[in-house]
Amino acid sequence: MTRKERWQTLLDLLVERGGLEVEPAAEALGVSAATIRRDLDQLAEQQLLVRTRGGAVPHGVSYELPLRYRTSRRAAEKLRISGAVAALIAPGEVVGLTGGTTTTEVARALAARADLATGSPALTVVTNALNIAGELVIRPQFKIVLTGGVARPQSYELTGPLAQQVLGQLTMDTAVLGVDAFDPADGAATRHEDEAAMNRLLCERARRVVIAADSSKLGVRAFARICATSEVDVLVTDTGLPPDVAAGFATAGVEVIRV
Predict the structure, then answer these.
(1) From CA 212, how far away is CA 178, in angstroms rounded?
(2) What was the pLDDT predicted at 49?
(3) What is the pLDDT of residue 61?
(4) 3-state SS assignment for residue 256
(5) Helices and strands of the chain, counted as H and E runs
(6) Are strands 123-127 and 142-146 parallel, antiparallel or unpaired?
(7) Neighbours of 228 (CB within 10 A)
(8) Which residues of the chain have pLDDT under 70?
(9) How many CB atoms lie within 10 A of CB 15?
(10) Could you read off the pLDDT of 79-104 as tens digits, one per residue?
(11) 160/183 Cα distance (integer angstroms)
């Protein structure tokens, strides 16, 4: 296991357990306690956790891993979901993409489509995610529109009045949203109100709204609401979605695609 893989595992365990102790973490990862102590010290220096006498705890109650440490979580599910979402997009569309690990995979799936290899443009992508714009801008057949705004280090997303001003002047065929939570009764939501405001505006400016989310984010709630369930046209998720939750989405008029 490399140091990067070890750090990702430690951060995943921290989120799942709400705290870590050195000895159990060393046993779980099959390394020495001294290695775990060094890892925790280095992660604390990056402000990814708070060091305690015997281990570590998250920062505050609304803990979120930076995007670069979330890419390996549910990777197989996200690849299937992203491929299915990309297949919904027609050549020549104007597509809005929020930030996040799943939407980043959607961008990569779109870039890999043979029928989008040429065109002027083959696709117009509107995004507030710096990493997505950076990956797609090298594709000359894609027209990339990046909003302005203030960057969030955790998600690489641009938010705030500048971003909203640009987005408010555009219209899109399809908006693809990554969310922290999507519940049949409470709608789509995220942990941060500034991201929720951007995502909400993206929904309002699009003719069709698609949510791309693995099943761990469904049937749960998060702090800041993006939109009501009735405003979502399609949900693309994995086969882990419980039948009762799927039925709730269907009743609300959401087309559910499980891959």
Answers:
(1) 6
(2) 84
(3) 44
(4) strand
(5) 9, 15
(6) parallel
(7) 13
(8) 59-73
(9) 14
(10) 999 999 999 999 999 999 999 889 99
(11) 26
* Alpha-carbon distance values, 209 to 142, 229, 232, 233, 259 (Å): 21, 10, 5, 5, 18
Counting other chains too, the contacts that 9-16 makes at CB distance below 8 Å and 24 or more residues apart are 10/36, 10/39, 10/40, 10/43, 11/43, 11/48, 11/49, 11/65, 11/69, 12/65, 12/73, 14/49, 14/56, 14/57, 14/58, 14/63, 15/58, 15/63, 15/65
Task: Report the alpha-carbon angle 248-189-90, nearest 5.
Answer: 75
For the record, the structure tokens of 136 come out as 């797609």
Closest CA to 104 of 144, 61, 59, 134: 134
Q: What is the CA radius of gyration of the chain?
A: 19
Beta strands 206-212 and 234-237, pairing class: parallel
What is the identity of the amino acid at 246? A
pLDDT digit string (tens) for 181-212? Answer: 999 999 999 989 999 999 999 999 999 999 99
For 214, the token pair is 């693995």
Q: What is the pLDDT of residue 62?
A: 47
Residue 51 falls in which region: left (phi positive, over 0), alpha (psi -120 to 50) or beta:
beta
Tokens standing for residue 47: 């402000």
E strands in the chain = 20-21, 50-51, 55-57, 94-97, 123-127, 142-146, 150-151, 158-159, 172-177, 181-183, 187-190, 206-212, 224-227, 234-237, 255-258
Which residues on adjacent β-strands are paired with residue 51? 56
pTM value > 0.85: no
What span, in angstroms and rounded, lies between the C-alpha atoms of 235 and 254?
Answer: 7
Q: Residue 28: in which H helix or E strand, if any?
A: helix 22-29
Q: Tell me the C-alpha distance between 132 and 154, whole Å.
A: 14
